Structure formats: C-alpha cells, structure tokens
Amino acid sequence: APLQMSNISASLSFGVQLASGFALGAAARELAYQLADKKANTLAWDFGLKIGLNEDNTFAAGFAVRNIGGAVKFINAEEKIPLSLRGGLSLLIGTREEFGAMFEAGVSSVSGEGVRAGAGAELGIFDIVFLRAGYRSGFAALAESGGTAGLTAGFGAKYQNYGVDYALVPYGGLGLIHYVSVTYRFGTEKD
Questions:
Q1: Is 3 exposed, middle or buried (CB count within 10 Å of its CB: 0-12, 13-18, 19+)?
Q2: Which of 1, 23, 70, 175 is the most exposed place for a label (fewest CB within 10 A)?
Q3: Rounded CA gap, 45 and 27, in Å?
Q4: What's the predicted TM-score (pTM) here?
Q5: pLDDT digit string (tens) for 97-150?
Q6: Cβ pair 100, 92 in contact under 8 A
Q7: Are 178 and 148 in contact (CB under 8 A)?
C-alpha cells in the first residue's frame, strides 16, 4: 500500500496599515503532520511587512519571515521546521474593483534548501474572482513531470469578508499537491 501522508495548517493572522503604503502583519499557525500512523503538531510564527514604492502603492515590496519557533517530534526524533525568508516585488495594473492584473516576482531561502526564485500573475475580475499562474525555480530534482514541476495554477473567490482559494502544484514523484484555504477577514480593508 502507498505511504499515507498529510499536512494541515490553521492560522490566525493580523495585519495593520501603519501609514499610507506601509503595512505589518503577523500570524500564529498550528501545523499538523501525519506520516502513516504517526502524528505530530507544532506552533509556528510568521511576520511580514509591505512597503508601497510609488504614490498610489501599485508597485510594492514585501518581506516575510516564516516558521519561527516550530519543531515536530515523530516517535523519538524532534526536528525544527525549516525557517523561511522571502522577499519580492509586486505590480498592479488596472484596478481591483474592475479588472486588474497583479504581477509578482520574488526570492525565498528555506533553511537547508538554498535560494529559489519565483514569478506569478493574478487576473482579478471585479475583486470577486481571481485566476492565478506561476513558476517556482529549484525543483529540478522533482522534475519527473518533464520540467513542469515548478508550474503552479489556481483560482480564488471573494465575497465581502469571505474568501476561498485553491492552488494546484505538481511535485514530481509526490504527484499533485492541492492547497485549499478558507478565510474570513475581520473589519474593513483599507487602501
């Protein structure tokens, strides 16, 4: 029988815009892992900031630190989850209220895995439906799928403070990884 594996993450996030074009955010994430009949879980922290680089904040830079403090223990072996540093740029063309395209490019460094680059695009329609595609470098070892292991695709939908997002990520010999998130945003969104 194939080896059964699953990962589930639940998070509580908070973000605040401190000034026009400058925002900070933090998240506490509970991570649950299962490998065959063994289970483990941990709490990890994420922190990030976003800085608008032009007057209307359609061009922005961001930086995040993820997985601070988490460690998992399977049987007798405990291991810290890999710390992740990420930075990138984004450009919004059009408006989110009607028809807009967001382009993003960035780099990430995950402890033990080196530096990777990625780029993606999101097409937003009336700030309700979002279509996404991207590419992440550094997956040559997993490229059993003919070099397409770094390609990603997804979509999202938003209504008032509710959102649903889905992403499909080919992951070589592991097959297709499905990411699903459901969100609720408290308060109102500020520009």
A1: exposed
A2: 1
A3: 6
A4: 0.77
A5: 788 999 999 999 988 778 889 999 999 999 899 999 999 887 555 555 455 668
A6: yes
A7: no
